[in-house]
Amino acid sequence: MKKVRIAILGYGVIGKGVFKICLEKEEIEVIKIFDYKKNFDKQYVSLFTDNLEDIMNDNNIDIVVEVLGGYDFAKKACFLTLSKHKHLVTANKEVVANDIDRLTKMAKDNRVSFCYEASVGGAIPIIKNLKELTLVNKIHRIIGILNGTTNYILTKMSREGISYQEVLKEAQALGYAERNPEADVEGYDACRKIAILTSLAFGNTVKFEEVYTEGITKISNEDFAYAKELGSVIKLLATSYSKDGKVYAITAPFMIDSTHPLYNVNDVLNGIYVHGNVLGDVMFFGAGAGKLPTASAVVSDVVDCVKHKGKNVMTIWSSVKQELGDTFDETRRFFVRIQGDDVQAAKAAFGEGQVVKVDGINGEFGFVTEPMTERAFEDAKDKVSVISRIRIDDTKLQ
Ligand code: HSE
Q1: Rounded CA gap, 126 and 225, in Å?
Q2: Which atom of ligand 1 is nearest to the CA of 270?
Q3: Residue 2 φ/ψ, nearest 5 degrees
Q4: What share of the chain has pLDDT > 70, as a percent?
Q5: I want to staple 119 with a disulfide (CB 3.0 to 4.6 A). Which of 93, 170, 288, 385 is the partner?
Q6: Catalytic: 357?
Q7: Which residue, by CA, sits nearest to atom 8 of ligand 1?
Q8: How far is CA 90 from the centre of its chain?
Q9: Alpha-carbon span 149 to 269, nearest angstrom
Q10: What is the chain's Cα-based Rg?
C-alpha cells in the first residue's frame, strides 16, 4: 500500500501524541517534524528540522499537520501549506476562528483539503457531525462545555473546595491549559470554539470578537456553596441559539441544575448539546483536551484527507458575516449574592424570587431572580448591593 507522507509542525504535547499514533498507523509515514525549539527526539533525530522551508519545499509531503499552538507563526505556516498545494490539518482554534474564511477559499482554489476537527471538542467528532446535521436540520441551539481546563478547574473547586490558583497549576501540569492560561480562564478559547460551531450551524461567519465573553476567574468557593444549596453546579457554557430570525451567542459561567443536559459533564471532559428541528436533541461527550484525545482527532483528519485524495474536504463555508443579537435582549434567570439582609429590597429590585441561605456564610444572602432580560437585570442591580451574579441556564432535554 502506498503510504501517505505527512509532516508535523510542532512537537509539544499534541505533536508528540500525533507522532505516536502515526507510528502505529501503517498507511501514514511521518517524514518530517518541525520544531523551532530544537526539542529533537534522539531516536528519530533524522526526521527533525527547525527550518520550515525544508517542509514547504519538499514535494514528497502530501499533508501538513499544524499543531504549533500560538497564532502568528502558525497562521503563516497554514497559509504557506495551502499555497504549496499540500493538504492542511490543524488543531489551532485561534487560526481557525480568525482565518477560516481565507483558508477555506485558498484550499478550494488549490484543490486541497483543510481539516480542523481537533480545533473544537478535542476527541469529540463535532465538526464533521455538525456539518452532517445541518444537511437535514435547522439547528436551533448549541450549548457546549468546550474548554477542558476550566471544566477541570470548576469540577475540582466544586467537589474538593480547592482554590482556583491551586487547581489551575494542576491543569497546566497535566497539559490541558493553553500556553497562556488567560485564553482558557477568561473564556477566549471557548468563545473561539463556539464561534466556529455557530458559524457551521447557522451558515454564516460569526466573528468571535463579537461573542459576549466572561471567564471563570471571579468564581469563588462561596458561589459553589450557594450552587450546592440550589442543587446546581457552575459550568463555563459557550452557547448559541436562533430566535425570531436572530442568532445570539455568549460564553460565560452559568449555574445549571441536575435536569440540565450538561450537568454531568465533569473534569476535563467536554459536552455539546445540539437541538435541531428534525432530530430534536443530540449530545456529544468526550475528552476535550489532552495529548492523545486531541491527537486522535488530528489523525482522523489525516485519514480523511487520505480517503479523499485528489478532492478537497471541509471546504463548505459561507463568508457572509453573521450579525449577532444583542446580549442585553436575552432573557434568563440570575443568581445574585447581595450584601446585608434586606430581602424586601432584593424583591423590589428583581421581583419575587427565591432567597438562598448557606450555613456559615454571613452578612449576605443569595437570591434567584425570575426570568428577566439582561438589560432589566443591569438596571435593577444597582438598587441593591450586589457582590456577584451568575447567569442560570434552564435548558432541559426536550
Ligand atoms: N486548552 C484547551 C482546553 C485545549 O482546555 O480545552 C483544547 O482545545
Answers
A1: 33
A2: 6
A3: -75, 130
A4: 97
A5: 93
A6: no
A7: 289
A8: 15
A9: 9
A10: 23
